């Protein structure tokens, strides 16, 4: 309690982020890992304790924690200097299963990872993302046979978005072929594509982190399939690394290294340099046991997870809201048509589609794929946690966890009027105020803020705007109602109730979500 400056809050047996806190069923005395989401309405801790910064102190297991839904406190934590608040070993998440990486590292190690990766995020990359997204969209329409249809039923929009963003990521990030009908696979005879492997890995990463080695060998289908998925991915990553190595080697032999600026090439090249020898062996590259030298695999996986599922979830949520809001769709479509009208061809232009971007932002505001931003105090420090006119300084002891709660910020009536309402115009209203597009680096906090904010923000918005603009231009998105056993179709309210139930594994989002597309005349 002293560690959190005696700040009022929950006193419970287990920290929400501890193993028992996460494994035991969530209840009033065990908020569980997803409480920032599940308790955002009825059991809201900030309202209960009458302040925007509150604490959780567990008396059996787990570190003392401070949670904040105050943007002002969030800024002090995330932009006040990494020597005060940063990640730490006890915040290492499942990404570290594959090796050290940009998401989990801290201090100088993190700087190294960020410095190596940053050059991959430039205007050339965003142009490739735009180009790849347009091409893949066209290929998807043709491969799925949509061109000849007026109505298309999509029983799972999430699986379409998952495949779309993963294919873009493997193409732009790794240089894999861009193909809708033939997702990347690891040669003949493999019954799982890389796409399926990643799906399995995304859903089993917690198991992989926690399971003892014997558990992998259990003779049941689920375990066999999971093991197979991990094995295939290791082989796939190794072959990708080798391909890039070879091309770097060939260039070097010609005395002319033109290093690809894609993420994977930069990481592989860096691993060769930092390893201090002509390259780590294949086994080292895909090694799963410490001590690691600099291996790109940890980074590659963290980018893969941080990069594709988040965008897929953001798009899935945006389409769910749009399906219920034809007026907003019409507004976006008029902008999309305006953008293409004065051009010789019907090329779309990211910079002019601020309403489409706003529709994506608003989806992420309501269902932030990365709902919390956790940090640890690196030294004894002080936070100004005044909510009202009365100033209040809070002493924070070194080692205390401080969690910036993006769900709390995004639903806070102090920052958003009618916070529960999907209203993209709250982002484009800024256009008049500031004579600029929705502000890329401004108030939108869904990608976090400060030096460790999302490196893939523009990457993600480029892909999302391209997908949404292409889809909405030709199709109206509507809910796809299920039919009850008694033959009656679901009502809109039942659809909403079913679809807007959030699911949180590595990211927060919707999974059970079906829509139909009706061709616009
Ligand atoms: C809708 C899409 C996305 C959302 C909402 C999102 C959100 C976030 C958030 C909230 C963080 C901060 C996490 C923290 O500090 O604890 C973050 C970090 C990060 N994101 Fe994203 N992200 C998205 C897309 C992407 C994409 C497309 C990529 C890569 C291509 C990416 C790569 C990363 C990386 C590497 C970090 C760690 C940065 C660091 O610590 O230096 N993200 N993201």
TrEMBL record:
Q: Name one Pfam family in it.
A: p450
Entry binding sites for heme? 454
Top-rank taxon, per record: Eukaryota
- Answer whether the UniProt record assigns the keyword Chloroplast to this protein: no
Tell me which stretches of the chain form a coiled coil: none
What InterPro entries does UniProt report for this protein, alphabetically?
A: Cyt_P450, Cyt_P450_CS, Cyt_P450_E_grp-I, Cyt_P450_sf, Cytochrome_P450_Monoox
Q: Which UniProt keywords apply?
A: Heme, Iron, Metal-binding, Monooxygenase, Oxidoreductase, Signal
Question: What PROSITE patterns would the database entry show?
Answer: CYTOCHROME_P450 (PS00086)
Protein's UniProt keywords contain S-adenosyl-L-methionine: no
Give the family per the record. Belongs to the cytochrome P450 family.
Tell me the protein's name: Cytochrome P450
- Organism of this sequence: Boletus edulis BED1
